[in-house]
Amino acid sequence: MPLYDRILVPTDGSPEGELAVCHALDLAAVHGASVRAIYVVDTARYAGMPMETTWEGVGDLLYDDGEAALETVCELAADRDVDVETAVVEGSPSREIITHAEEAGCDLVVMGTHGRGGIDRLLLGSVAEKVVRGSSVPVLTVRIGDEEAAANAAESASATAAGGEESATAGETSADGTSAGETSADGTRADETGAAGTRADGSVSDATETG
């Protein structure tokens, strides 16, 4: 008995989002399920446009982007011999995703998430998070777009390690076994021997006779 019959996958047409699309299609191929792919034109984002800017012109461009994104989904589905339905819709992305998942009788939603946290999540929100919280249909999120963050983290860790090595070198002992700032067996601080020095008779030179 197949676990899934119909899978919903939203797409934004980005190369990163394509990872979630491929994951949904692979699941559908394994379970013999069909896929419904949607592209949501976020009308709320353009609500504050200047009056001289016509929605018709912007809307046409966004619909063209949506059709191109869904055409890519169809090509990927054909490679896997998976049946796919597509639709371009308008509205709030999270609301439209939830509505389509429930009305189309889908038993799984697969979507990408950038894994935002902290202040980014508080200020920007997350479509995936809203869908997870509001959907009665199970949601599978696919982490996308973190390659650069991972590379930056690795570079930062490397820089930190290099800094630690430099600190360790700075703290190495001198040839006589005395670390910088420590007092040697004869009572002379290691960081003072270069300037102070002693005469052959053991008396302190004038260079160190300060008040």
What would you say this structure looks like, in words?
By secondary structure, the chain is α/β, with parallel strands linked by helices. Helix content is 43%, strand content 15%. It is built from 6 helices and 5 strands. The chain has a 5-stranded parallel β-sheet with strand order 3-2-1-4-5, sandwiched between helices. Helix 3 runs parallel beside helix 5. The chain is globular, with a radius of gyration of 32 Å.
The helix content is 40-55%
Care to count the β-strands? Answer: 5
Our measurement of the CA-to-CA distance between the termini, rounded to an integer number of angstroms, reads: 94 Å
Beta-strand content estimate: 5-15%
Q: Ranges with pLDDT <50 over ≥5 residues?
A: 148-154, 156-211
**What would the average pLDDT be, to the nearest integer?**
73
**Rounded to an integer, what's the Rg over CA atoms?**
32 Å
Q: State the secondary-structure class.
A: alpha/beta
Q: Which shape, going by the Cα principal axes? A: globular
Order of helices and strands: EHEHEHEHHEH
Largest sheet: 5 strands, parallel
Placed side by side, the strands forming the largest sheet appear as: 3-2-1-4-5
Helices, by number, come to 6
Task: Draw up the topology in text.
Layout: E1 6-10, H1 17-31, E2 34-41, H2 55-79, E3 84-90, H3 93-103, E4 108-113, H4 118-124, H5 127-134, E5 139-143, H6 147-170
Parallel strand pairs: 1-2, 1-4, 2-3, 4-5
